[in-house]
Amino acid sequence: MAASSKTKDSKAPASPDRKAQLAGETVDARKSLSEPEFSKSDYTLLRVQALNAAGIIDAAGIERGKADRLSRAVATLDALLSDDASKKPSESASYLTGLEVGRLSMIVASLAQPRGKFNKHVRTLVSPEEPASPGLADCALRLQFLALCRDAKFKVEPPAELTPGEGHDGVVELDRWRIGIAAATLDASDESLEKAIETGNARLKHARLPGILVLDATAPCWPERKIIRVAADRDAAGEIHRRADAFLERSLDTLDRLTDSDFVFGVVAIATIPTFNVARGLVAFSSSVRLAILRADTDPRAAQMERFAAGLRRDRH
């Protein structure tokens, strides 16, 4: 039977068979809460970020089509910068726009390049969403994690297909060791995690590629759906890490029981939560990335996963 895993702070001593590693954190967007919405300077910076991402896509020869996600974000930001109050989007729209611009910019900067192997996936991600298309949250999650790995200097391969199917969601190479990825966005229910595990087992087995589950755990880590007030930026990071760790802790029995030990030997939990720095009057959308090893120390894959986690940590600090 597989050994259990346990989350731990990166400075704490590891127990023999229960361990996890801090992979990193990112800040996607900020806003001033001295006003009911983002300040105009924040909107301007986000607009520049969106236009820069669009420029990278165009330079890479990727067709964005009409009303692509970045163009829609720029249009929303233009409306927010306008003095016409009747045309202003809601505050929730400003939050979502800031988060989307940050996430897309990170993916585009890492993965889009002339004749690049990720270009068709980037095109699918930024193109207008069709009513019957699979959710873009999972698509963005796959590319976000692969971009994070590429930024950490790992060699990465694109998903078999960007939209959900039978293939893997990407490959990360560590010294010729290929780690398969199976990604899913969770809701707050236990059934959501069980379904993600079942699907991940099947996809990695179908691809004949052992690897890890990558889970967007924002929903279970942030059930209150309200901005978390903190005293300092370090407290914000600590609170999001604590929540991601708690999610992994309470999910360990399910992960140990349901994961296929031949094909799933680790899990990554990513949580993106807005926090309000009371002292500075700022909100940050921050992402915590936590990695848990699901197999015993005697499993050679455990040592490899330790090295993988260490590589991700180095890139984030």
How would you portray this structure in words?
The chain has helices at residues 40-59, 69-81, 91-111, 119-126, 136-151, 190-207, 218-221, 233-258, 300-316, and strands at 20-32, 155-157, 171-174, 177-185, 211-216, 228-230, 264-277, 282-293. It is an alpha/beta fold and 317 residues long. Strands 1, 2, 3, 4, 5, 6, 7 and 8 form an 8-stranded mixed β-sheet that branches. Strand 3 (171-174) and strand 4 form a beta hairpin. The longest helix has 26 residues, at 233-258.
Q: Average pLDDT value?
A: 81
Distance between the termini: 35 Å
Radius of gyration: 19 Å
Largest sheet: 8 strands, mixed
Order of helices and strands: EHHHHHEEEHEHEHEEH
Which band does the percent of strand residues land in? Answer: 15-25%
- Assembly state (oligomeric): single chain
> Which stretches are low in confidence, meaning pLDDT under 50 for 5 or more residues running?
1-37
SS elements, strand count: 8
**What form results from the Cα inertia axes?**
globular
Number of helical segments? 9
Structural class comes to alpha/beta
Helix content: 40-55%
Key words describing this protein structure:
8-stranded mixed sheet; single chain; alpha/beta; disordered N terminus; 9 helices; 317 residues; 45% helix; globular
